[in-house]
Amino acid sequence: MRRRRMMWLTVLVGLWAASGASCPQLVPQYTAPLPRVLPPSPSLEQVIQAVNNNSTQIQSFTAMRATLSSPGVPTLRAVVAFERPRRFRLRAEHALTGPEIDVGSNDELFWFWVRRNEPPALYFARHQQFATSPARQTIPIDPEWLIEALGLAQFDPSLPHQGPYPAGSDRVMIRTLRETPQGVQTKVTVVDAAHGFVVQQALYDSRGQLLASAEESQPYRDPLTARIMPTVIVIHSPPAQLTMQLNLGPVEINRPGSTTPSYWTAPSLPDTPVIDLCDPRLRLPQR
Predict the structure, then answer these.
(1) pLDDT tens per residue, range 14-32
(2) What is the value of pTM for the model shown?
(3) Nearest 5 degrees, angle CA 198-CA 68-CA 174?
């Protein structure tokens, strides 16, 4: 059980997640009022258009003063960067112990390293191989869905969407069915019915069991681009028995030159084995 939990911790912290433990709330650097973009009782097409218009125009972002925390784990200082379509980097450290987490993705592969993982290793997988690999049984959440949890959710027009259904005051819910090698998954997305940004997401497997949920709060509207994204993301995963939170703090959206090519390269760590998650000889703990 401990090994399985550590693998999930590695993946969920690693593959773009966040913690429900209490930690300092960093205030975004701007607090501009959010404009209303949806009419009362919006249609499915209007909700989808509003969400996609916002998300697709966020081509990149950086958060240089983020924090990452989880119950029973010290709060870590973090740097987060993203660039479409698949480039991502999260590096977290503790003031006393130094680097603790390095997670990233480029156009070819994703990787993750957690200092306290046992055994210590740099894990990686190529995007094209991961979906059908044995590792997919242990890591049932698509890494790209976890990128969406950072506030970059989009509705694929080729997928079947149902709704919108009322989901509380000024909120609507949309259900989306997704075919995966593990069966049909259902994604439930809750959208702010006035401002058109995502506030909650949940992913269920083919048996209707919750794989993971994300709550997105403290929306930030960038003054230069007018794009909106959350600055606090909480992800909960019952299979992993984990709750995690990422506080992005001040965010810069679509700023050219805010990253360098080295951001999107897996690290070279001395005395650390490199393990391919898609290696058919690899044996991972099952859920």
Answers:
(1) 443 333 333 334 344 445 5
(2) 0.82
(3) 15
